[in-house]
Request: fold
Amino acid sequence: MTTLLDTLFNGLALGTVYALVALGFVIIFKASGVMNFAHGSLLLLGGYLTAVLHDDLGFAGALAVSVLATAAVAGVMDRFLLQAGGPDPHGAHVQTIVTIGVDILILTDLSRRIGGDLLSLGDPWGDSVSGLGPVTVADSRIAAIVVSGMVIAGVFALFRYTSWGLSLRAAAEDVEAASLMGVRLVRIRMLAWCLAGALAALAAVFLAAFPAPGLERTTGQIALKAFPAAILGGMASPPGALAGSLLIGMTEALVAGYQSDLHVLGEGFGDVAPYAVMVLVLLVRPTGLFGGKAAVRV
Amino acid sequence: MSERLSRAGAVRVGWTSAAVVVLLALPFYLDAFWLRIGLFSMAAAIGAVGLGLLSGTAGQLSLGHAFFLAVGAYGYVWLAGEPGPGLPTAPAAVLAVLLAGAAGGLFSPVAGRVRGIYLGVATLALVFLGHHVLLTADSVTGGFNGRSVPPLELGGFSFSADSELTLLGVPFGAEERLWYLGIALFAVTWFTARGLLRGRPGRALVALRDSETAAAVMGVNVARHRSAAFVVSSMYAGLAGVMLALSFRRVVPDYFGLVLSVDYLAMIVIGGLGSVAGATAGAVFVTALPLLMTRYADQLPLVAAPGTTDGTVGPTEAARYLYGAAIVLILLFAPDGLHGLVRRLRARLRRRRAAPPPVGTASASLPPTSAARTKEPTP
Reply:
């Protein structure tokens, strides 16, 4: 029973952090139709900046700087590399490949700087734990759930109540109509990328915090697990991304928690279980759990 | 007009045969390093043509190409080796290609239903699940350390350096022999893919990409063509996998990861979607660039010699920087890839040749848009 509660709690913590990343994917996809392969490097960039700055600025200051800087990098990347030829709705696949190029550039540079080191992010939770009913949980995980939950709620509020959110939803619905209604597509799109970058930088903190050893050069690859999370929920649906992330987090935690009972599937199956779940879901619902069936007008 | 066409045709035949002669003569002049670059490029080109067929022509985004390459490579090694059935190598190679095709066919329940970006991520799952299987199924794949590849034998002729062979004073080792195998396989790929693209299946796939509904109305069987594109593309990938395995002489799981899939995607987009020649050019570019960079790193400015650490830029990193920058720059200035770039350059050259200086007559013969441009006042 304790194992189960423990596992579920871990799954919840993992899921909310994945949700930060998956939400970034979904926001970018909604705004620009691009699958952002550079998301992992943006995440790593955010973590790296926090790690090198926290000695001078303190944790909160370093985090603020790194969130802003990562948002700026994402925005600049979208505005000056992807949108260089204007907001072309048909160029999404080319822009997707451009993000691969950017990913290679950022990742190579950060890997060179980080090398084989394990960087500490200087977060205030350290390795402390607290008792929560029958189970003992790491403080960093509680913080992950609380902070991520608040940020996700904030992002949903942005979508729902601000004019930017309205413009973004309008642009995702129909680019031309939105543009005729006076939506400034270029700026809306760039802000979406900034928001996604900021979320990735924040996620880096929790991915490198206590149960994990620290920030490594491979930390960015965790962003790849948010792909199935975003797809599971339906790529164009932010609530879907949240649900998908929780499902992926739970799956991973459960498979890892009951590893010994599942040894038929091989060691380390927890890392690939999200993909297996995703393929199964896509077989039944080809546009994800929350993705609507696209109507075709002839 | 027909006279000009036939002259253009003759010129094209001339260029093609010259290229073939040069390709056939290269092993007599180049050393093993260059031949190996050529082998990897040819293998990559075969795989890239397959992916181009699927993602470029049929519009089905696939990130799972590395998985099908792995099926081809490991299929060959297992079928021809010990442990395994220990078949003769030639049928093992053919069976490995068919096995890759079958793997593509097994995926068709997903490929036939899932579209666009969803398909891309679904195929991503193949890479991760496949990698997991390669690591865990020790008895078939050899686990983390992989397996060594038995050399191909064709009618008593071995594609390895086991037996002595000297032609025109040049010793023929494994690379030289595999070079000709690679050229033959690539020629097969080139002609079958062009035949497919220019015939009925190619037009059906293009129609599917542009509008599924319209294609279905015209009588294209949507589900069948979608999964057929997947099977054919996987077979090309399997062939490329066999070729890669023969060139590497050892297969390891870590090679067939997401990076490889992404590289193939980069090849076809850099080359230009929907064209066999473009996919080939992209494959050569993506494959050869890092190898050349690593080799000639010491002669480049700002690059440290291999082995030095402490934060300087080593050759591998320099190659990655250049690779990333090349992707971004090519697509920034030529969104339709190298193929489109060449086509535009050629069109410009032809226009210049066709319409020499006299402005008045030239503008009359040009299409209206460019005629309007010539009338603009020049500051």
Q: What stands out?
A: Chain B is about 70% helix and 5% strand. The beta strands of chain B are 147-148, 153-154, 157-158, 166-167, 170-171, 250-251. Chain B touches chain A through 47 residues (CB under 8 Å). Residues 1 and 308 of chain B are 63 Å apart (CA to CA).
